[in-house]
Amino acid sequence: MSRLFEAPARLVFAAFTQPELLVRWYGAQGWRLVGCDVDLRVGGRWRFESQGPDGTRMAQAGVYRQIDPPHRLVFTELFDDQSYPGETLVCHEFTELAGRTTVTTTLLYATAEGRDTVLRYPMTRGIGQSFTRLAELLRSTTTTTRGEHQ
Predict the structure, then answer these.
(1) Which of the four, 72, 82, 137, 147, has the lowest number of CB atoms within 10 Å?
(2) Ranges for the Activator of Hsp90 ATPase homologue 1/2-like C-terminal domain (predicted)?
(3) Which long-range contacts (CB under 8 A, 24 or more apart) does 126-132 make?
(4) What 8-state DSSP symbol labels residue 84?
(5) Using an 8 Å Cβ cutoff, are 47 and 61 in contact?
(6) Which is nearest to 12 in space by CA: 76, 75, 99, 88?
(7) Looking at the DSSP assignment, which residues form a beta bridge with residue 91?
(8) Is 57 helix (H, G, I), strand (E, B) or coil?
């Protein structure tokens, strides 16, 4: 999957790794992060807890494997109520050209069965909605000279 964002890679990378930004865009329409823990270091853990419009909760977590800001982020992912076997390896590549950044995401499932199960879900629609929220956030976010996001 890939998506172009109208923002520099350092800001897009920050949106994928800083809880104060993640809670502002992560999740499909109607979903929001109600818990967001990030220990951004190789071997560090992350955990997101989302709540849907009907109150349904979903949690996922993993371990950071590679962190190369603002170019690459690799981590494992496992849902609390996972319906397919094994951890997924997620790789985000951030490629900037003239102040615009393409995020290319590769998902490697533990098994072909797991991949096929996920492909039957409305995952593409949900990620698309989430990335639309991210694009809106990036348009409205500025970074101060001290690196703080507003």
Answers:
(1) 147
(2) 7-138
(3) 126/27, 126/28, 126/31, 127/1, 127/28, 129/27, 129/28, 129/29, 130/25, 130/26, 130/27, 130/28, 131/3, 131/5, 131/103
(4) S
(5) yes
(6) 99
(7) 74, 106
(8) strand
Q: Tens of pLDDT along the chain (150 residues)?
A: 999 999 999 999 999 999 999 999 999 999 999 999 999 999 999 999 999 999 999 999 999 999 999 999 999 999 999 888 899 999 999 999 999 999 999 999 999 999 998 888 888 888 999 999 999 999 988 654 455 556
Closest to 132 (Cα-Cα) out of 5, 2, 17, 1: 5
Q: Is the pTM of this model over 0.70?
A: yes
Which residues does 110 contact at the CB level (< 8 Å), separation at least 6? Answer: 85, 86, 87, 88
Distance CA 122, CA 118 (A): 8
Structure token pair of residue 101: 């950044």
Q: How far is CA 83 from the centre of its chain?
A: 20
